Amino acid sequence: MIAKWNRPALLAVLGLILAAWPIAAAQDSPATAPTRPATLAAAPDSVSYGGVLDIAVAGDFGKAYAAFQRLPSAGPDRQAALALLGRQAERTAASAREREGELNDAIARVKQAMLAQDYQGQLKKSGLFDRLRAAVGKLVTAYGDVGTGDDLATDGADAATQRRTKALEALDKLSPLLDGVQALVAADKAPYAATLREMVTRSKARLQDMRQAWQGADLKTPSARVDASGLLWEKQTDMALSITDIQGMVVLKPWQSALTQARLAQELAGQDHSYAQQEWYKNLIDATLARGDAAIKDARWFEALAAYTMLEELAKNLDPAQEQFFADKAKLARQHVRVLRLYGDSNDLTAEEDSVLNPGATTRPATTKADDAQISWRDMTAGIDANMVKRAIERLNDSYVTAVDYRKVIRGSLQAVKVLAITPQATKSFPSLADKALRDKFVEAVDAQLKITQTRDNLDQLDLTLALDSVLRASESSVRIPTSVLSLEFADGLLDELDRFSSMIWPYDVADFIKQTMGEFYGVGVQITKEPGQPLEVVTPLPDSPGFRAGIKVGDKILKVDGRATEDLGVDKLVRMITGKKGSTVVLTITRAGLVKPIDIPIVRDEIHIRTVKGWRMANDGNWDFWLDAQNKIGYIRVTQFTDTTPGDVTAALKDLRAGGLKSLILDLRFDPGGLLNSATRIVDEFVSEGRIVSTRGRQVRQSAIDARRNGQFLTGDLVVLVNEQSASASEIVSGALKDHHRAIIVGHRSYGKGSVQNIIPLEDKKAFLKVTTAYYYLPSGRLLHRKNGSTDWGVDPDVVVDVTPRQMKRWQDIRRKTDLLMDVDAAALTDALKKQYEADIQLNSAVALLRLKALRDALPPPQKAVAEVK
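Above: the chain's sequence. Below: its structure in token form.
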């Protein structure tokens, strides 16, 4: 079974340890809430102890720490509080410094990629480009043989020693290969060559660092191997980035790498949009738009799609009008790509087009039958007819969440049909389109319908149906494209104008759809996420699953499934490809940091048992320990998905914690893609005794609401909920309801914004289905959770924003993957790994600091709780 995630943008962090293990009070905090002295000397600038704690609980640790230092030092309790606050302020500052460094690196890589793009013509002219690509290709292949230290924590001493020997032997082969790259540009005085030489020099230094780390690693004990794994993670990440930088100077399309790094820079910059006014950014946008337009003109659809998709991403949160402009261009390019892939021939892909699908590749791999495997358009369209589409149009009018904009959907449906006709590669399947006179006649008829759409008022359902009929008649008298094909393109074009979640389930997909809804399938046991146009990414392998046993890791990019590239396929389709019969084998082609060369991993499908509720550490018996800080009675519950068993597991965890004297709790909903509505509302019931939890509203459905019940396990006591960009759907309902009821402090990053309800409507005796959005979810405050196109407000905003970088996220998630699966290793090794996980997770340690500082504030007498302004 595979849990589907909607949006990738994963996060992590840096910090110091303080809780689930004994720590001296003077280092972090007192063992119990402090009692306030009978008298308190007046603080300078009207700052009070309670006021400082108010500032700290609001999440501004740096400001609170600066103010705290102006208070008189009185008593060990206050000194312990000062130490705790100082530690968290330093964690926050260290994270910000690391973020700034990563931002500068991303901007530098944008400029490097643009330099490579500008100089590529000169390299090709001199004949050096192919030689450089060959040399770098050998380097990349050799580095892929080095392996990583990720598994040292679970290796025995002998296996770890063998891993080191193999790594050192592979590292020794890299120096002459680096020298070979450098020698090719040794005499070139151009800035490109100078930059490449600097990259090689930097790689040599990092190679030496990595060699020393392997040579000096203590592999004798489990705890030592955990330490070695952490150190090697840093070194191998640096080395992989260095090799990738070199690789980026010889890729076929460096401008794509520039766009990727610009998107990373945007993410790292956060709310600071000043980068958009910088020259490098403006030049990149202008050059990319020109490339996209030129690609459309020359029918290079893959290149156009890559350009416009990244431009659309860059425009988000900057300029809604520009975002829509790029989105429209990307949609047109995507339609052409769809036609090419379904009706054209992938063997006709040029190296440039292939580089869009494989942007990091220095050379195109030899094609195989599996590489070129495509779904036959005859299979895809079998069983589709015009009546099926007309029934879908009728039900759409009856069910869609808002009034249908018929002008927009008619234009979208007609445009999709026109794209089919004018895409040159479609002649592979429909030779009549090669006849210019016939094709022009058909296109003119479609254009005539488009003109009618633009000039007529009050378009309705009948006009949409008539547009379909007109397309079919025009085809019959000209190009004679099969009715099933035109019906598919027409329907998908109109639904594409509605929202991301409304679609057709065509006859070709019905069997898999029914199989999934009935649960009659087996899988590999990985949670996945996907960005449009990007490879599938592993969020985490499930413990003791086929994927975990085969070596799948957090952050792995799944480039292919049984030889089929994943970039241009949707998550639903990929899930169907990865799941299958029990005992059957699926081959995943993956790449990861430290393994630049992709590898094939065969996995035997099996039944997957998902545990959606996790604690802080797993005991040897496989049960979770939910105490994060037993000394201060802080519990920790992580929910990875909302299934029918989730509420019962959360209730059981809360009962165990309450029996142990639970005072405060962290509910971790980060990376939770959602699930069952009933599961979400039952979990809210554990924390809220009354009031609205969530309501649904739609144009044609009755408004409904769900209210809390008085039977919760933790109705009082402090609560923090962690969320991030991948907290979606049911997790947003839980966090949003708890926020609106002022029951919890929300910490992290704004959630994903998936708050819509889909209904599955059977068509033509269940030969096909229409999946259509019928309603939206609303929080108790009336806030719409769903992110609509162009909207600026969606999801759940944290009370305390704690942003982290992709590299920080990866560091933390790599450690957590290990700690989740280390139940059978030495207890000391697990404790060490958990400390490192806590240190890396600034969102989590910020939550703990907030809870402990709030406990200190709440222990003060009422007069000391007034907020004091600090200047």
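Residues 1-45, 348-373, 865-871 have pLDDT under 50 and may be disordered.
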